[in-house]
Amino acid sequence: MPKQSALWLSLxxxxxxxxxxxxxxxxxxxxxxxxxxIAQTNxxxxxxxxASKVGNVGGPLAxxxxxxxxxVDIFATWCPACRNxxxxxxxxxxxxxxxxxxxxxxxxxxxxxxxxxxxxxELGLGDFFAQNRSQTGMIAIIDPATGNxxxxxxxxxxxxxxxxxxxxxxxxx
Length: 173
Known about the structure:
The chain is an alpha+beta fold. The chain is built from five helices and five strands. Helices cover 47% and strands 15% of the residues.
């Protein structure tokens, strides 16, 4: 009887090992799939692919944003990186109140993402939003006169990464 029990135990453990292997392989394949739509998995989990990325949002921003640097936050309530950078953004909003425009584009769900897309188009950020809508936890600092991206970071809670760029932009005004 003990040999039969050992055989059953061995069979059960083998089945469990195969099941775990299949789950792990499926998870790796799923994680490697690119998401161009609103990412409902965890786009914040990657490293900081946006750090020091520069470019242009497609031209000058809307008149209502002119005269002050613009900080754009791609936000979602379910994003751990967004929660990580929230205290830094709160400090920046207090420190630069009245000196900088802060724009939050909330992509927490489809309805909010649609509202954010409409708002982005209205502000001259339509192309930027289309390219970055799945990059939650991403902050960009933009020169509204030219549309140039002065700095762009993802999941970066280092306050000085933002203040150095903002102070430089404000000194040029």
